Fold:
Amino acid sequence: MRLPSLEKYIKTDLLRILGKLLSDRRYQPGEVDLSLIERVIVIRQHDQLGDLLLSTPAFRAIRQSLPKAQITVVARQYTYRVLEHHPDIDRILIFPEKLYQASPAKLWRLWKGLRQGYGLAVVLNTISHSLSSDILARLTGAKYILGSAENPFPGVRPNLFYNLLAPGYGERVHETRRNLRILEYLNVRTKDMGESCALSPQEEEQGRDILYNNHIMPERTVGIHLGAYNVCNRWPHQNYAALADWLIKEFGFQVAVFWGPGEDELGERFLGLVKSEIKTLSGLNIRQLASVMKPLRLMVCNDTGVMHLAAALGTPTFAIFGRSEPEFWRPLNRNFYGVRGLDRTCASAELDVVQSGIKRMLSRRDLF
Structure:
């Protein structure tokens, strides 16, 4: 038996058992007095970096609707750092998604963090439904557990872990709107659907120091991030090299190039083709990268977590999309612009289309 099949059978049997043990009590929104809720926990550990940043408008909505409540977010080991210093989050709990990360001390900290007397637990699933997220929500012991009616588990009553069940859209919508739709069931709303990420004053100073030490003037610098975890989401490095030369020749910009872990060969291929002087900034951790990107004139990148991070920082961001549908996954920040190839691949996005889009972006006085 293959492991995925074994996992499926175990999950199915577990759900059947839990279906018999868990109460089927359901609350209606009118039964929930938000003014009495002092602690809220949001479960958002089953996602990638971009998914997590797409959730930040939901945290904003909770803060605006429950300004006195303490807000805790559960996030994955390798994504949680983008939430540090966020004004709408009071505490971050780290979920060790890999077995080797789950030391007894980490599990104990997570358990203590989950058992803080929360009045409301909110599960923000992505387009897939996470059983682990549902179990974490139940472990909090919160009186109210809010989640979406979408993507129910088969063979048991609909979304048995929630006692507040927000109706689904019935059609595909942008991921940020999907998250907010869950909260709107309790009349928790925000008008600002842009992603957000915050830096401490010390981090902003560190970013300025890194730029200064590399002789980079941020107001005259365009950043280019070459990489993407999925190779098919990478715009060809040959195109990026031509784009860098064009930015320097056409506008007199400096160009700073970034790439991620394991992408040194990609960076070398780019540097072997570019004809102009390029500033190379590699080997930065996620917080250092954010501190360096924030003051730049423009960031150009692929459809990756870096795209969401740059837009969330408020940096004007231009992205080339691959397989992901921009309609559902792009940042909704007004500082964002993206293009996609005619055959819906990153590689087929033409250089002149990218150049034209960047020109239009640079002409927008409201962004600079």
